[in-house]
Design goal:
This protein is α+β, with helices and mostly antiparallel strands and 320 residues long. The protein has one domain (7-318). The chain is built from seven helices and eleven strands. The strands form three sheets. Strands 3, 6, 7, 10 and 11 form a five-stranded antiparallel β-sheet that branches. It has a four-stranded antiparallel β-sheet with strand order 5-4-9-8, with no helix packed on it. β8 (251-252) and β9 form a beta hairpin.
């Protein structure tokens, strides 16, 4: 039932040979009644309109460079928020930089391809007309026929999820911000290169608002006002974008009609970008292990990431 929509691209001289199934071709192939494409029956391409290549000079891949820019953008926005608090007149903020507080960020990139094939035909067998006669008004002719419809459905869905997590101390991020943002305050604005996760995530606004709570002093330890007032605080944002196409060619003959209602073939690509950021006390990095949140922060962070992924899956299932 399924036809394969695949473009094979050879990358001679590179460390790998890329077999690329372009979602763009899948969308174009919907004009063909027999082509349901690899959309949903093969592993989705992450960036279907961009060919992944490896640059021979440094060995980096194009996809890797795109995702490095995402990580750098999130890190820059966190650093900017910490720096803006440090520059401000907010009270009770010293603990934010002098204690073992830090931030964990989890970036989740989800790529989903869906396709559907819904063929259907209706067979009509005409019978001879019947004539009804009446005492007045003349005869009435009524047509007669027999109809029989038959159809089928076929669907495919594939989801690819990649997760990146990193943890920094606030002291390290402040040091980076003092060096980078002092010389170029527009650094983070320059990394706002597009939409969704590449846009302004307003992380700095989130950080400043939470530190404004601390500045009021109503959550401070009355005995040790220099201690951190929070256990943790967390920020989440999710972007969902869907692109789809369908085709419904209809055939009508004397006795047979094909595909009169639902789309014969359709293809949908859904991209989901999610970011979860949690501040809390961290366990500093060692030569063998990266930095990570301590118990309470890690529990909140993991549950936030899991809840975000479940919510995304439910939205995809319900079509909302």
């Amino acid at each position: 039932m399924f036809a394969i929509c695949r473009v094979v691209v050879g990358t001679t001289g590179l460390p790998f040979t890329s077999r690329k199934r372009s979602f763009a071709v899948c969308l174009l192939s919907t004009v063909l009644p027999t082509a349901l494409g690899g959309c949903g029956v093969f592993t989705p391409d992450k960036y279907p309109f961009i060919e992944d290549t490896v640059y021979p000079d440094d060995g980096n891949s194009k996809y890797g460079i795109l995702e490095q820019a995402i990580v750098g953008h999130v890190q820059c926005e966190i650093s900017k928020g910490i720096w803006e608090v440090w520059k401000s007149n907010l009270k009770h903020k010293k603990w934010f930089y002098t204690t073992d507080w830090g931030v964990s960020a989890t970036i989740t990139l989800t790529f989903e391809d869906q396709s559907a094939l819904n063929p259907g035909i209706s067979i009509t067998e005409p019978f001879s007309n019947r004539i009804f006669t009446f005492p007045t008004g003349g005869p009435v002719t009524a047509s007669q026929s027999f109809s029989f419809g038959v159809g089928g459905t076929g669907t495919g869905s594939a989801t690819r999820t990649e997760t990146i997590q990193f943890t920094y101390s606030n002291k390290a991020l402040l040091l980076w911000a003092q060096r980078q943002l002092l010389s170029d305050p527009a650094t983070c604005e320059e990394s706002n290169t597009g939409i969704m996760i590449n846009s302004d995530l307003r992380i700095d606004q989130f950080i400043y608002d939470k530190m404004s709570i601390a500045s009021s002093g109503n959550d401070k330890d009355p005995i040790h006002p220099e201690y951190p007032p929070f256990n943790t605080f967390q920020y989440q944002i999710t972007f969902v974008a869907t692109l789809g196409a369908s085709a419904t060619p209809t055939w009508k003959f004397a006795r047979v009609t094909g595909n009169t209602t639902t789309p014969l073939v359709s293809a949908t690509r859904t991209n989901t970008n999610g970011v979860t950021i949690t501040f809390g006390e961290i366990q500093p990095s060692t030569p063998t292990t990266p930095a990570q949140l301590k118990s309470s922060g890690q529990i909140l962070h993991n549950s936030g990431v899991a809840a975000n992924q479940i919510g995304t899956q439910n939205k995809a299932t319900s079509g909302n």
